[in-house]
Amino acid sequence: MEPDELNVRPPILPRTGLQFPEIPTSRSDQGGEMSDVCSIAQPKIYTNLVNSAIGNLSTWPAYGAGQTIFQKENPCAESDILCNRSGKRTGSTVSKPRYLEQLESYLRRELQSLDSAKGISQELRLQPYRDVFDYFIEDFKTYKPLLCAIKNEYEVTLAHQREQIRSLEPLKAMLVSVSERCDKKIQEIYEKERLEVRALKMEKHNLLKVIDKLKEEKPTLQAQVSKLQEEMEKVYLMYRNECDARKLLISDINELKHQQEGIRLSQDHKEQEEDPVTLSVALRMARNDLTKTQVLLNTLKADYGDVVPRRDFENQEKNLATCVEKIELLQKDLFQLQSEHKSLLEINQQVVQQRDSLCMEVDDLQTNRTPRPILEKCEDIFPEGFQRWSELSDGKSSDQLVDLLLTELGTIILKEKDFFPGMGIGENVPIHLRHDRPVKNLRLSLKEVYCMIQEIWNEKLAIDHQKGRQSSLSEFLINYLQKKFGEESTEWSYSLHQTCRIQLINGQIHSFYKVLMGQMDEDLYHSLFNVHTYLLKELTTADCPNSGSLTQEQFRLQLRKVFPFKSSDEIQELLDTADSQLKPEGENINYKSLFSEDEEGNASNFIVKLRKQFAAQRMQYLNELRNKLGKNYVKPEELKAAFLSMDPVIDDKTLDRYVSQAFQVTKDQPEVTKSLSLKQLFHNLEAVNIRMSGPAALV
């Protein structure tokens, strides 16, 4: 029987732990001679090799005899195997196969011998494992190809890894050197910065000394300047006197020159007188010519004294005809004016009667009411005086001037306050002002307030869009300030509230205060102050080359497209405002410059005009609604009917929202059936974003 056949693993009976007996074999060494045969008894049941958990036999084959390892010292040589001649195993049943124990014993001896020496590399520690694996491969012929392939693959992989490690060694050294150079450069930079800081400090100290020295020299120089000014005045007076004396002297010299010239001319005239004989002959000839001319002139006067030129005659005829026509027209106009004069006299009598009655009413009003205030007196309270007042009050109405004065006075009072009194913690106090102790005044500038308002709106709109509902601005404000400023949130809340409250002339900031206090709907705020957003988007879309400018006609078409409900006069007002703001030299309009705002929220004239037209259209809508109702008390169904008659395309959701906000009804409260006064109704509607449905709603 062949040796390879003897090493075939016996078949395993499933789930029984039984193994077929192996036929005892013998194996020859390299010399071809037969060695002693260590026969092993054929075990019936090897319970110590059975894995009871899975029900299979151990993967270790039956104890083979006569296994010879060539070329290397085999740790399980035949002499080391304890066997008797009868083929029975001398030892008792063991927990591990004997061959495995011999391999482990060999491995331990080799590792102990290597561990006793110092400086052993991992390659040397790996060598005993390689030897054990080689013995294992040599003794198991059946699995030798697979195990050899596994070993070769591992060897190739290890060689590849060694090659990579060897190639990375220079990089490691280079990395260490680069790191050292970088550390050295950083230290040099730090040292250089320390030297520069020390030099700058010394320079600062020297400059401070120079400043102190200059401050000491300043009074002395001022005294010298005063003295030099006095001396300059004296020198100026002296030179001015000398200049006046010089001018008088020049005038005297010129007069003498003129006298000398007159004397010289008179002498020359006497020398150039003509001969008396020649003059008498010339006089006689001139008298003869004069006689002839006089005779001819008398003849012409006698012949043509009454004759007129034809050209003058025809011109006079044309003028006469024209004058006749004018006289006829003037007579007709005179008759018409006389009739109109009579009617105007009658109207005048009626107007005089109305004037007399109005004068009586004015007299009554003047006696019963206070006189109109002289607002020009208010220029004294402004730091810059008349110029500042004239700039702010130009083109303002009386109501706007009162707002201007209140804003200026409130700003002055607010700057003088160091602390705000706490408003308490009651339910009637807004959430962002609930505090019972004095609060420090941060004295915020308009720029800081405007930037904070923009941040608050951006954050709130993002959170409301994420939640899908609109939250209260007061609650959001206190949460936002606590998140951003922590313990200083109350100071920011009070300072922001008070600054927005007094800014009556800054519409965007004061409207934020109204929304905060519930006096204005948040949708109305966004519609009013973002009325230009949709227009800018459409203008940018129409600007295909993205040059930032459009022609006059393109700009007009986009205005008509975005604002379909505006009249031609309103569109023309917008165009005139754009021209006056930009003053374009050509036909193109740089539309992006029309939508600018300064750091305090003050918009350009074009945006202000858009907002005024938006507010005017809204007030016109409310006035039409007021005229439509025409009652002192209104019921909800009457208000709905008025809305539907004015705006038939309005949807039910918007209509219900208008009615609920007009009657101050929430979703939790039952529907109100009682009537409300017209004054209170429109006071509630003025805080709501009411407008026509349709294309205008996109604005």
For the record, give the distance between the C-alpha atoms at the N and C termini, rounded to a whole number: 102 Å
Q: Taking all residues together, what is the mean pLDDT?
A: 76
Strand coverage percent:
under 5%
Unreliable runs? 1-94, 695-699
Using only C-alpha atoms, the radius of gyration works out to 59 Å
Task: Report the sheet with the most strands, covering strand number, pairing sense and barrel closure.
Answer: 2 strands, antiparallel
Label the overall shape: extended
Q: Strand order within the widest sheet? A: 1-2
Helix count? 20
Series of H and E elements = HEEHHHHHHHEEHHHHHHEHHEHEHHEH
Category from helices, strands and their pairing: mainly alpha
How many distinct beta strands? 8
> Which percent range fits the helix content?
55-70%
SSE arrangement:
Elements: H1 3-6, E1 50-51, E2 56-57, H2 98-116, H3 122-139, H4 144-271, H5 276-304, H6 310-368, H7 386-393, H8 398-416, E3 419-420, E4 439-440, H9 446-467, H10 473-485, H11 489-502, H12 507-516, H13 522-529, H14 533-542, E5 550-551, H15 552-562, H16 568-582, E6 588-589, H17 605-629, E7 633-634, H18 636-646, H19 652-662, E8 676-677, H20 678-685
Antiparallel strand pairs: 1-2, 3-4, 5-6, 7-8
Helix pairs in contact: 2-3, 3-4, 10-11, 11-12, 14-15, 16-17, 17-18
Please give a structural write-up:
There is one protein chain. The protein is mainly α. Among the domains are: 140 residues, no CATH class; 99 residues; 51 residues; 140 residues, no CATH class. Helices cover 63% and strands 2% of the residues. It contains 20 helices and 8 strands. Helix 16 runs antiparallel to helix 17 and helix 17 packs across helix 18. The two termini are 102 Å apart.
